[in-house]
Amino acid sequence: MTRYTASHWGIYEFDETETSPKLRPLRSDPDPSMIGLYQLDEKLLESRVARPAIRKSWLEHGPGARPELRGKEPFVQVEWAEAFNIVATELKSVIKEYGNSAIFGGSYGWASAGRFHHAQSQVHRFLNCIGGYVRHTGSYSLGAAHVILPHIAGTVSDLSAQHTTWDVLAEHTKLFVTFGGVPTKNAQSSPGGAGHHRVGPGLKEMARKGVRFVNIGPCNDNLDAECHAEWIHCRPNADVALMLALAWQIHADDAHDRDFLARCTVGFEKFLPYLLGEQDGIAKTPEWASRLTGVPSKRIVELAREMAETRTIVNVAWSLQRAHNGEQAFWMAITLAAMLGQIGLPGGGFGVGYGPMNTNGSPHRQLSGPTFSQKENPVQDYIPCARIADMLLNPGATFPHDGKLRTYPDIQLIYWAGGNPYHHHQDLNRLGRAWQKPRTIIVHDPFWTASAKRADIVLPVTTAMERDDIGYATQEGFLVAMRQIVEPFADARSDFDIFSGIAERMGVQHNFTEGRNDTEWLSYLYEDMRARWKKRDVDCPDFETFWEQGLVDLGEHASPRIMFEAFRSDPAKHPLKTPSGLIEIFSGTIASFDLSDCPGHAAWFEPREWLGSTNAAPDALHLLSDQPARKLHSQLDASPYSAAGKVGGRECIYMNPADAEARGVGHHDTVEVCNGRGRCLAAVHITDQIMRGVVRISTGAWYDPDETGLDLHGNPNVLTLDIGTSSLGQGCAAQTCLVFVRGTTNTRSPNPFKAPELL
Ligand SMILES: Nc1nc2c(c(=O)[nH]1)N[C@H]1C(S)=C(S)[C@@H](COP(=O)(O)OP(=O)(O)OC[C@H]3O[C@@H](n4cnc5c(=O)[nH]c(N)nc54)[C@H](O)[C@@H]3O)O[C@H]1N2
Ligand SMILES: Nc1nc2c(c(=O)[nH]1)N[C@H]1C(S)=C(S)[C@@H](COP(=O)(O)OP(=O)(O)OC[C@H]3O[C@@H](n4cnc5c(=O)[nH]c(N)nc54)[C@H](O)[C@@H]3O)O[C@H]1N2
Ligand SMILES: [Mo]
């Protein structure tokens, strides 16, 4: 009998009559991801957490004991009952002594698919049941965008729902200009579960219909070869300068769409003096941009003319805003598209962005799926998620965010379920110093990740393969009855069972469980969703039928979608959710914040570190740390599929032949990559798909430092910069980073997946 499971990488099938079931891609998926096939691989078992474990000094001497030994001493395994008592006692004690605003429960991370066993919902609901916690806002994905976009065009979620569908792009777009490609490796995933993978097929169809692709940026392997893109080498983090010059040329040619600017936007007249240099004496001409970007000015002029003459869409990868002043890249891309005046026309306008996930360009509706309520959080304090080390290092200090001045709380306890800060955060050595601040760190994870190894209390969680759940992601096409495939590993329990056990000891069990067990919750959440969807004319079978049938195909949205079509036709009747209801080329709100690093219109700022800097050493290289092709973040890094992308067990550093030659290093040599923040080893991969002066290490290699702090495995976050994108967004700025690369004789093998010593 065919059964199903959902994962971020897609839906997989298995035969429940097999004694050891194997995963197969969903038969109807036109472009399945290989990543998820490895979820049951036995290689993953080496790093599974078997039993609740407490760091030795913490257990023997109490909370706060020897925080500098986190990650460096053995754990003592305990029974669940003892673990529940210890956690409950410590939570009560911290709340009594310091209050709930001493608990950081932001718990950022992707965890697993499945709407009920969604780790963040579980941990947030539990912490709310005990009086609340300090939360986070935004994401590492789109930290800057989450703050800037609502001021200028609408929320990230609104825009995601509106992206023009792939069929329309294939039919109508003539020129697809993308900054940062459209990486199909990234489109393997959607948070909560990709359904049919549509980006690869979408691009192929566009290529078949003769769309011309121009890929601007430091890499060219982020757009399928079949697109036959023209690659314009542009220095990392200099995209805004190039966009400004395109805008300058379009204006100089009098090719900007005055009617569209007048009807659908506000503030072009306030942006224009900046563009022309009337304010700062610097006209943003192609010659000006050429010096900053390395792109010949003639090419900029020609491209501007081509864009104005033909049906053009401007796309930006999310990585552009994961950089210092990343807000500007999105603002300027939308400003440029507004000047072209094709927003709301089929195949024109902008994308923010096509490619980062399977979602954008989806023909499916935005519907909120089964939702396990997180309840209300009485604590008001929050941080933008990427400011965690700042918060821990500077309790009581103030910081600006979206026009307000806020205060960092004084954190005594961190509770993490479903994320891996030692994967996702920048400047891991700095995080290591900050990580010593709280007296207690509690982590739930199926695996001995770098974060689990550095916690005080580690509670073993089941994987999605080991429990029943409901799979659904908004704008994807399926509801999935996720059937348990294997028994839980060792003593692992679901987050729900763990929190129920702790809640019981804290006297809030009924509040947390509402008297339902996990099976009862599944049917309850499903029926609740079914009733909501019925009101929107979406019919689904009852829970029993759904559970037996395994999949519900939600079908596609009725008609092809064109972003902002209705808005364009009548902006007064279909306003955007911005203060003016129009696209804000100038934002009075942002201008009123009076920020030196984010004025009222898009502008160019030199990033803290980049190749154009006069301070950059001649042999410095710009390090990009993109998303890994063979895993999702740190998840499944131990799988054979991820291992096949490494050399000598180490992550690769992609490098231009000229840079390798200048350093005397060859293909597959081990090198040391370093800067003032940290050092790691990586294996050289020489390719002409990355421009000179730029190197790239994908994220995801489990952090594995030796005694000197040298990471042996190739984790780029030992090198990245931990600053906010700007005082507006305070997002993650990982793509702003200079490094040095040199040959090394150190070939010590990494051993990242080994469990810590257990007593
Ligand atoms: N340098 C650099 N750094 C980056 C980025 C970059 O571009 N460059 N990108 C950033 C981005 S966009 C993101 S989104 C982050 C991603 O960062 P994270 O989302 O933190 O990374 P994951 O590896 O997905 O972590 C998920 C963790 O949840 C665990 N898990 C899975 N299922 C469950 C469950 O049911 N319960 C519990 N308790 N745990 C579970 C997994 O084992 C894993 O340890 O990384 C960011 N970091
Ligand atoms: N397989 C896989 N897919 C994933 C993920 C994963 O871990 N694995 N993570 C998912 C998540 S959480 C997210 S947020 C998305 C992220 O999606 P993105 O942020 O779009 O992805 P990245 O791979 O970080 O970067 C995309 C491309 O931009 C290039 N780039 C970097 N800096 C610059 C720059 O300054 N200018 C220009 N022009 N290009 C630049 C990078 O080299 C890369 O080729 O991906 C999602 N998809
Ligand atoms: Mo992300």
UniProtKB/TrEMBL annotation:
| UniProt cross-references to Pfam families, sorted A to Z | Molybdopterin, Molydop_binding
UniProt keyword terms in alphabetical order: Metal-binding, Molybdenum, Oxidoreductase, Plasmid
Q: So which cofactors does this thing need?
A: Mo-bis(molybdopterin guanine dinucleotide)
- In which domain of life is the source organism classified? Bacteria
- Cite the Molybdopterin dinucleotide-binding domain residue spans from the record: 621-737
Which residues are in the Molybdopterin oxidoreductase domain? 48-505
Q: Which family does it belong to?
A: Belongs to the prokaryotic molybdopterin-containing oxidoreductase family.
Protein known as: Molybdopterin guanine dinucleotide-containing S/N-oxide reductase
Q: What is this organism's lineage?
A: Bacteria, Pseudomonadati, Pseudomonadota, Alphaproteobacteria, Hyphomicrobiales
